[in-house]
Amino acid sequence: MLELKVNQIQFFSLHDGPGVRTAVFLKGCNLSCAWCHNPETWKTAHTVMFDAARCMGCHACEEICPGKAHRLKGGVHVYEREACMECGKCVEVCIPGALKKNERLYTTEELYSVLMEDARLYELSGGGVTFSGGEPLLQKDGVIEISRMLRRERVHVAVETALDAPWETVERLAQVIDLFLVDCKMMDEKKHMRYTGVSNQRILENMKRLSQIKEIEIRIPVIRGVNDDIENAIHTAEFLRSLGAHMRKIELLPYHDYGLAKAVQAGVEQKAFEPPSKEQLKLLQGIYRNYGITVV
User: Fold this and answer.
1) Contact 255, 223 (CB under 8 A)
2) Please, what is the angle between helix 167-174 and helix 140-152, to 10°?
3) What DSSP state is assigned to residue 277?
4) What sign does the CA torsion over 5, 7, 12, 13 have?
5) Tens digit of pLDDT for each residue in 71-85?
6) Do residues 274 and 35 touch, judged by C-beta distance below 8 A?
């Protein structure tokens, strides 16, 4: 029996695959996208989230912290993350919830029991379970084990991934996953490295190989001044069209700033971007449709 490091479980999700779904957000990611809306999932180890607005100044965390990471100075709570031992003792004594751990370990048996509580809802809506993150492929063994358990009960299983993993990992997942929701950031390798921290060459190669054996849907975050230009859309459309019939559709996802507050709480540096204009988004939709690609 394996364990999975879970950031959160979102019930009644309507945007993570077909039907009504339960989305399981896993910890750990090998990309560091500048606009990430789940930056608290980057570390595989748990992250202490600090919401300064909730702090009552009670000194409880300061008194119990073995690393002396917490101190109140002039009535202001100062959290020195470099000194944090991530033991979680401060979280246990924080009554107002200013300090929280963003990870829980589940055995596959425990998580299976939670997910199957909505089995009837999956059946009625044509929904199921989606593993997201972070990057689910970093916890491939646990995802494979629980996916097998779910599919034995005819629960549809999807995974949202950037596909930045060895092909052997992707191939193993393809044996137990019904649908891959693949993030596609941009085609230019240098820009991809600048904004995500990694090359896109392995990602694109995996997309080619996966589309030959499995249904995939593409998700493109659209950020003004980063990847909303016509040239990138044309190159992306040409590449996606070459994937063939298993590439079912793409979703254009305008940038939102949901990750900014969580980045502050997780101690991650993140700048604000802007969504594309409605006119530019409509123009991009037209480009993809001209290539015969279904766009949402």
Assistant:
1) yes
2) 10
3) P
4) negative
5) 988 889 999 988 998
6) no
